[in-house]
Design brief:
alpha/beta, five-stranded parallel beta sheet, 505 residues, 14 helices, nine-stranded mixed beta sheet
Length: 505
């Protein structure tokens, strides 16, 4: 008599897997529930909480750099008073949305996708997952899915950009990184130097200035900074007059039109835009020399993303004498602070290295097809969503010149359209295939340092629609969901044993 063998555990299969439980992932789940009813799905979140960026970053003053009427979901009105909202308020909004629509029950925390391999024989994705429990124990599991949707953004949340500063080991104070803000830090009455001039730095300076003795923002070169109202008075009036859902749509439309109009103005009339922005800063600071030296970049507005400061809080901190800007290069750290190339020493008890984030393509997932790795940098993006060479795979990429969620929501609705297209046609899978040769361009067309450092690892965009990733919500909203899927999505038959990877070259 032989011992009975334990029954093999069947690998779980889902129709759709969403990677990431942040703003994009929760929005994607809502669209999947409402537009692809009946599809089984789960959201895989590597961290122990939802919220993505808005749960991870805890540095002082963290806030949106877009208004919440457009950064929020079109199906979930933003009801708070502030248009430019703080991080905790945005996190509560995401959590409330997930609870309201039952999305929170579909999130699997502590679950990281470490491998994704498309099987042509089975016409599904085979995912290898690393699951980490509350005690820190890890185990590997397998899961298969018909469609894989990466909603983890394009930042590396485990590692920021951390340049090596000469002499940093000699510094006697505390070095801090915004991405990993320590809970126990006390900078009350201390001298703080914030290295950097991007959105994080201009957020930190006024927030830390409230408690610190003095805060200095040290930048190598100026960044365009624009004061915006923290509260939208026109939106308040509209909300008084109209029902909540209608008011939200009207305010959202108003803000979309304004943001697109201002972006187009900056791109088409750069000299006029430069004068406008420097004029605003001069009126607030009342010092043309300071504005010329520290707030007049060599590049044009929107060559890099423009930093918004609500209610001019950054400039107000400078006027109060609580903050200053120094434009110079670091020669070396010294025990008492930072010595600059000019010879000046910035004395500091705390130095915050707000030197930017690091890009990471689609949550760090390296996709395979039948066991062979697919080089993302060799692929092209279709409609800003799907990639050549990867069947039934989509990514969520927001706008660089407007609220992330505007494109994210359009992409999620397009993904739902593709999934429904598969059902109607009886196709197991589809993959984008261009007609003719595409002239390649970088996926994100901004001159910002954090983009230029890593953009070579990302897929490319083409020179024409639907392979060009446009930065115009009005055009995208009018055309994306009307696209003819039969023209650019090629069916992938399950019977094939050798994958026919589409090539755009």
């Amino acid at each position: 008599m032989t011992d009975a063998k334990p029954a093999a555990t069947a690998t779980e299969h889902l129709d759709v897997v969403i990677v990431g439980a942040g703003l994009s992932g929760v929005g994607a789940a809502y669209r999947l529930q409402t537009e692809c009813a009946g599809k089984s799905y789960a959201i895989l979140e590597s961290r122990a909480a939802m919220g993505g960026t808005w749960d991870l970053f805890r540095y002082p003053g963290i806030r949106s750099d877009s208004d919440m009427f457009t950064l929020g979901y079109p199906f979930k009105p933003w009801r708070d008073a502030k248009s430019i909202a703080d991080g905790p308020s945005i996190l509560r909004y995401i959590e409330e949305t997930a609870r309201e629509f039952g999305i929170d029950r579909r999130i699997r925390y502590g679950t990281k996708v470490v491998s994704a391999d498309w099987s042509s024989a089975d016409a599904h994705w085979r995912l290898t997952l690393e699951h980490r429990d509350a005690e820190g124990n890890t185990e590997h599991r397998e899961l298969t899915c018909g469609f894989l949707y990466a909603c983890a953004g394009y930042y590396n949340y485990d590692h920021g950009h951390a340049p090596e500063f000469p002499g940093a080991a000699e510094f006697s104070g505390q070095m801090v990184y915004p991405q990993f803000w320590p809970k126990d830090i006390d900078y009350t009455g201390k001298r703080v130097v914030v290295i950097g001039s991007g959105a994080t730095a201009v957020t930190l300076v006024p927030a830390m200035a409230e408690q610190a003795e003095h805060v200095t923002m040290l930048q190598r070169s100026p960044t365009w900074i624009s004061a915006v109202p923290g509260r939208d008075k026109h939106a308040d009036k509209i909300r008084e007059l109209l029902p909540p859902n209608l008011a939200h749509r009207v305010i959202r439309t108003k803000n979309i039109l304004f943001s697109i109009g201002f972006y187009q103005y900056c791109r088409r009339r750069p000299e006029s835009a430069r004068n406008l922005l420097t004029g605003f800063a001069t009126r607030i600071l009342k010092d043309e020399k300071v504005v010329a030296e520290h707030f007049t970049p060599s590049y044009n507005p929107w060559d890099q993303r423009l930093c918004a400061v609500p209610d001019a809080d950054f400039f107000k901190a400078m006027k109060k004498g609580k903050a200053e800007v120094v434009t110079d290069h670091i020669e070396t750290f010294v025990p008492e602070g930072i010595r600059l190339k000019s010879g000046k020493v910035l004395e500091a008890d705390v130095v915050v290295s707000a030197t930017g984030l690091q890009l990471l393509a689609f949550g760090g997932i390296t996709p395979y097809v039948d066991g062979q790795p697919v080089d993302l940098a060799e692929q092209f993006v279709w409609q800003g969503a799907m990639l050549t060479g990867l069947p039934n795979f989509a990514v969520c990429i927001g706008y660089t010149n407007a609220s992330w969620t505007l494109r994210a929501d359009l992409t999620s609705r397009l993904v739902c359209k593709v999934i429904n297209h598969l059902d109607r046609k009886g196709y197991p899978a589809v993959v984008p295939e261009p007609k003719g040769t595409l002239d390649e361009r970088p996926l994100l067309d901004l001159a910002s340092g954090y983009i230029q450092r890593s953009i070579g690892d990302f897929p490319r965009q083409g020179d024409r629609h639907p392979w060009k990733v446009r930065q115009n919500y009005l055009l995208d909203s009018a055309t994306t969901l009307r696209t003819d899927l039969n023209k650019t999505l090629a069916p992938v038959r399950k019977a094939r044993t050798e994958p026919e990877l589409s090539s755009a070259r």
